[in-house]
Amino acid sequence: MAEGETEKEYATRKAIERLRERFQELTTTLKENLESPSDASLRFCQEFCQILVEHAGRWKTEEEPLPLLEVYTVAILSYAKATSCLSSECENVPLSAHSLLQEHGNTQLHMLSAMAQEPGVWTNTTLCSILSNEIPEIDRVHEFLQMEGPTLLNMRIKHLIKQNRAEQAAVLAKMCSEYPEYEGKGNFKQTYLVCLCMTKTQEQLMQEIAQVDCKDGLEMICNLESDGDEKGALCLCSAFLERQLLQGDVYCAWELTLFWSKLLMRSESSADAFLGQCRKLVLLSRSVCHILFLIKVIQSEVKFFNV
User: Fold this and answer.
1) 102-130: average pLDDT
2) Spatial CB neighbours of 166, under 8 Å, sequence gap ≥ 6
């Protein structure tokens, strides 16, 4: 391995090198083949598609787009080198490969195409303006969002969060959540609210969730938990529950309290810590029902701690 290279990066590099070798061997065989041009071309096309599908299947577009982008780049360049030896029947090989990849689950090829059009992953001028909080004209924003697609945008937001750039992630997530074409796609609203939990004051957060129905909030919390983001789920659940407590509103209060207690149980290591968080909510409560709900979860959950 090269210095500073992780095992995963090394494995990816070796896989790409092997892909180049296989395509080179395939092209050499085509040029040296004694079969009829039509038969040789057909054999090349079949093996070309098989190799591409095999290698592209090693990565998921949503999780690792850059290795896939390199795979497709190598494939296109290799095909270009072989075109002079191919019969006219093979003109549609790239389209055939595209269809095969879609059948094998690689349905986000437009995302890779969008990335390939830029000199760098984060160099798009509209994106840079958004992340700098210098919001460009709405038409430019919409054009950028449409070009990127919800999958790539969601990946960008997650990357920003991992890099402790939650404020920038919040700006981008808000843009996506307000784009009409992405309504119901990508869970951008819940991501935006989670980012606010990390970056904004309690007052600002409450203002943002004021217009969100608690049932929608519960769905967001469930989505986060299903995705393995229990920290985000707890953060968002706490915000919605506190809103209901402060307003004395019992709508969805039991469901929120139950979710909150289950999530908190997983994050706290002692009964004292769990009870401490419960006390804070009791002090916020403006309804007897809320207090009774908290007492119920305390009775149910505390016994599971080693006390």
Assistant:
1) 67
2) 160, 195, 198, 199
